[in-house]
Amino acid sequence: MKSTRKSQSAILSKLGIEALNEMQEQAALAIDSVDEVILLSPTGSGKTLAFLLPLIAILDENIPEVQAMIIVPSRELAIQIEQVARDMGSGYKINTVYGGRPFSKDKMELAHTPHLIIGTPGRLADHMRRGTFSTEWVKTLILDEFDKSLEIGFEEEMDEIIYNLPNAYRKIMTSATQGVDIPDFVGLKKPMTIDYLADGVKKLDIKAIISPDKDKLDTLVTAIRHLGNQPAIVFLNFKDAINRVSDHLDDCDIPHGCFYGGLDQHDRERALLKFRNGTHQLLIATDLAARGIDVPEIKFIIHYHLPIREEEFTHRNGRTARMHSDGTAYVLHWKDEELPDFIYGLPEEKLTENHKITKSIWTTLFISGGRKDKISKGDIAGLFFKIGKLKKDQLGIIELKSDCAFVAVSTSALNSVIQKVDNQRVKKRKVRVYTI
To answer: What is the mean pLDDT of the chain?
Structure first.
């Protein structure tokens, strides 16, 4: 049988990456050399690729069983890792399981056994209890953002999962936070630690925006208009407050999306999708968005509510200034508000500009066909270029899912393109196309 495995250079070329950074090279070397690795590196430094590259090299395409498991604390992080793994074009089957969607859908997808499974503790433990897949061949276990997945609340399920992986001798743990106690049940013996946390995020600036009023809504609007039309996240501590902020931004004609735990999984995924493809430039979110979403072009974040813990301050700030980009985190606080000990000595940003906040040039369309229909991104691009008559600069990001796809198209061409492509055939399947 012809091998489908791709070389590291081919994978990096497909991802558009010329070379690994120092942390990624050191992590790959460690994972190749020892069985237990703890990787500590700032958010946005490329940890996902740092463990996925050596993991892909370890998998055996001739064994049609689950060989590696990645455990993550949130659905969003699971989806993000899956997307990176798919973008690598490794040739291995990958599945993601998490709460918030029917168990039967998981079971159907797992009927064709993946080589790699990614999931949240609760859903993985449930699958293992029901024997949906064999754990006999799982030799590699990765705990990504282990500082969250080992917190109380996940502990019982994590203990159960690791107990039922007796052959997982290779363990890789990653975090952007220092000083986390690792429970005995993880079973680490002599791990090698790769620590790049001292490097920080070199291109991140942190500044203060001072509100003259205790109610900071008007200052937030002034800040957004001052900073202009740039991809950004505004962080709040409570999901109930998001509705109040969102309503005020609507009243001020500031387009935005919302992302928090109270939304169902369907709406959460679409909120992130629209943010990634530029349909929304501004996202109002709780700390759920502080981990596991990767939007490389975020230019700034605003702490509307002060984070309760330093760890969340770090993770929020890590949403901007990612990889080779720069970015700024703004702490929006009332002039008489007492700041936590870990926030001090910030230079003040004077709000002088008044840019008009305009609607995005992109609109997101839903397409009722995906990977299981043998549809590729190239097929979708062909539909919009050949039949929809779009120009190259009128087609944005395409995201392909198992049973559907989403594409950003130029808002100016929206009405004419939908009329042309709706109910057309793609790979023998007639697809519906409409705005979401």
So the answer is: 90
- The domain made up of 204-334 has a fold known as Rossmann fold (3.40.50)
C-alpha dist (Å) from residue 358 to 130, 301, 308, 352: 51, 19, 33, 19
Q: pTM for this one? A: 0.71
Closest CA relative to residue 430, chosen from 364, 381, 396, 383: 383
Annotated domain spans of the chain = 8-199, 204-334, 362-435
> What pLDDT was estimated at residue 202?
54
Largest CA distance in the chain: 70
In this predicted model, what pLDDT tens digit does every residue of 83-120 receive, in sequence order?
Answer: 889 888 888 999 999 988 899 999 999 999 999 999 99
**Same fold: 8-199 with 204-334:** yes
Q: Which residue has the tokens 């999306």?
A: 257
Give the CATH superfamily of 8-199.
P-loop containing nucleotide triphosphate hydrolases (3.40.50.300)
| Non-local CB neighbours of 111 within 8 Å, separated by 6+ positions | none
Distance of alpha carbon 320 from alpha carbon 207, whole angstroms: 13
Residues 6+ apart with CB under 8 A from 100: 75, 264, 265
Q: Please check whether residue 118 is in contact with residue 70, taking contact to mean a CB–CB distance below 8 angstroms.
A: yes
Q: Are 409 and 421 in contact (CB under 8 A)?
A: no
What gap in Å lies between CA 343 and CA 383, rounded to an integer?
A: 51
362-435: CATH superfamily: RRM (RNA recognition motif) domain (3.30.70.330)
